[in-house]
Design brief:
The chain has 445 residues and is α+β, with helices and mostly antiparallel strands. It folds into three domains: 2-76, no CATH class; 99-235 and 270-275 and 283-308; 315-322 and 338-432, Glucose Permease (Domain IIA), CATH 2.70.70. 61% of the residues lie in helices and 17% in strands. It contains six helices and 14 strands. Strands 3, 6, 7, 8, 9, 10, 11, 12, 13 and 14 form a ten-stranded antiparallel sheet that branches. Strand 13 (418-425) and strand 14 (428-430) form a beta hairpin. The radius of gyration is 51 Å and the shape is rod-shaped. The model is unreliable at 169-174 and 267-279 (pLDDT under 50).
Length: 445
Amino acid sequence: MRTRLAIKTHALLEKHFPERRVFLKSDSDTRFIRLRPATQLAAYAGASLLVAWAIVATAILLMDSIGSGNFREQAKRDQHTYQDRLNALSIERDARAEEALAAQNRFNAALAQISVMQSELLASENRRRELETGIEVIQSTLRDTMREREAARTALAALREQTDETGPVLAAAATAPVSMDLMAGALERTAQERDRVVADAREALKQRDDLEFEIKLMHEQNDQIFRQLEEAMTISVAPLDKMFRSAGMPTDQILDQVRRGYSGQGGPLTPLSFSTRAEAEPSADELRANRLLGQMDQLNLYRIAAQQAPFAIPIRAAVRQTSSFGYRRDPKTGGRRMHNGQDFAGKHGTDIFATADGVVTEAGWHSGFGKLVVIRHAFGIETYYAHTSNIRVRKGQRVSRGDHIADMGSTGRSTGTHLHYEVRVNDKPVNPMTYIKAARNVFQE
């Protein structure tokens, strides 16, 4: 059976690859080479494989060349887009900072104006009270003068009657003209004093009306200033409150902690008073002013807290975010591993800045992290800056937000130049982008 299969196979090959002979002729002899069907099949298969391999290799090389070119172009486009985005964010941040500074200047000017107007209002109220007291004294004097005038008239009438009845008496007749002259002079002086008192009273009433009109205008101006200040405080406090809440930070506890830490720099604010009477009920302006003072205190506490929390990005140059917070494939072992921070890849030596006020607790070599800087901030927060090439701070040094603390490098367990940035709350790693995005969203609104 095997022989028959071989015969059939040979016949099939003979049909497609008939036996051929290649003759080699020389001057004295003629020889030939017999090409059997199996030999021809092997040669044909080998040639086909060689041609196919050449075609596939050429296609792979062309595709790799085209793909690498497209990848480089795409990388360049992404880099330009990211750079433009960073430039736009920087311009927007500077604009928001200028707007905040202008708002603060307007707020300070309005506060100074309120202080001046409060002093003027107190002086006006004191003047009004003095005028009211003067009017009461003038009215009392006028009433006394009128009573004296009526008594003088009564005495004059009685004297005239007595003179008529005792006309023959020489002593009375001799003294009557003298008494009449004295009484007439007294009446004339009394009439002049009365006219002067009436004129003074009218002038005082006119001044009182003018003063009441001025006080009314002053109240309207105060109301307008209060409205502007209330709107400014609402616009200033709301974004800061939103920023802390977006980062998951309890604002009430944070403000209480800041208030306790800064209670020795002036104590509580003294409430404003628009009345000179200690027993008087607080006025509407007094309540509004005290409410504004409370909002000002809250705004200052928010600003202090924001300066002590890492609401900033540690890199200001053009960088690429290569690895985010969370589980990822380990670049060294290939296994799945938790990544506790945010990686920013950039040029070697790129400046690294502190993201909040604090104290440096570590500045040196740390296994895995390479050259590491650790800063302790308020509210139990710490920030880590790893794989740096050069450290510019020392342990125990107090730094402020924006201080240059290190340079980007690739020390420790690293595959390339980058910054590994961590934020830890009570020694528990949290996503750093939560703080960065919270501040970025507020400043862009």
